[in-house]
Design a protein that fits this description.
The protein is of the alpha+beta class and about 190 residues long. Helices cover about 45% and strands about 25% of the residues. Helix 1 runs antiparallel to helix 3 (about 60-90). Keywords: Membrane, Transmembrane, Transmembrane helix.
Length: about 190
């Protein structure tokens, strides 16, 4: 597990500005699937109690049904744990020097990428759909100066505010380091 007080390749004056995970609402489908799959055998017990009692009393079918039910619940539990681990270990860290993308791909595969603020060319946020609009979460894309490097922040809370913070950090970084690459200009809010 990564300690946030010791980021990889951390500079002396580097400070964490934002630590982002996917929005909590994206966990609800995992929870509902777990509850639905867990309740399915119980519904069968309620609908067919006499038939199930006869089957469980059978010397061969009874242990086989118990074994299959145990394997089923173990599979449901493992699927739920796998999905939660994928949710929890996908992290985006924004510091005053760089953007770090930590993506868990499966149980034993993790990809860590970093992008220095001076290399950021474009930041785009998008919120699609009524639920994402009401709960204020969506995606953000950070495009670097490299040809195809693009960081995808998936289902993060407040993507418009995060985008603005990243643009402000890029602007501040240019002021500190005096790079010749023009920073993306923050969008001005209209005045009424």
């Amino acid at each position: 597990m990564m300690r946030l007080d010791q980021l990889p390749n951390q500079a002396r004056d580097e400070k964490i500005v934002l630590l982002l995970r996917r929005h909590w609402f994206t966990v609800l489908p995992i929870l509902f699937m777990f509850l639905g799959l867990s309740a399915a055998p119980l519904v069968a017990v309620i609908l067919f109690p006499e038939r199930l009692t006869d089957l469980l009393a059978h010397p061969t079918a009874g242990p086989l049904i118990a074994l299959c039910a145990s394997a089923y619940y173990l599979g449901v539990w493992l699927f739920t744990c796998f999905e939660f681990v994928d949710y929890y270990l996908d992290v985006w860290i924004i510091t005053n020097e760089r953007v770090i993308n930590i993506e868990q791909v499966g149980l034993f595969n993790r990809t860590v990428s970093e992008l220095h603020l001076a290399n950021i060319q474009d930041v785009t946020s998008e919120v699609k759909g009524i639920v994402k609009t009401l709960l204020d979460y969506g995606d953000m894309h950070v495009q670097s100066s490299a040809e195809k490097v693009r960081f995808h922040f998936k289902d993060i809370p407040r993507p418009d505010q995060v985008k603005q913070q990243v643009l402000d950090l890029v602007h501040d970084d240019q002021g500190r380091h005096g790079t010749g690459t023009p920073a993306p200009t923050p969008m001005q809010k209209p005045t009424v």
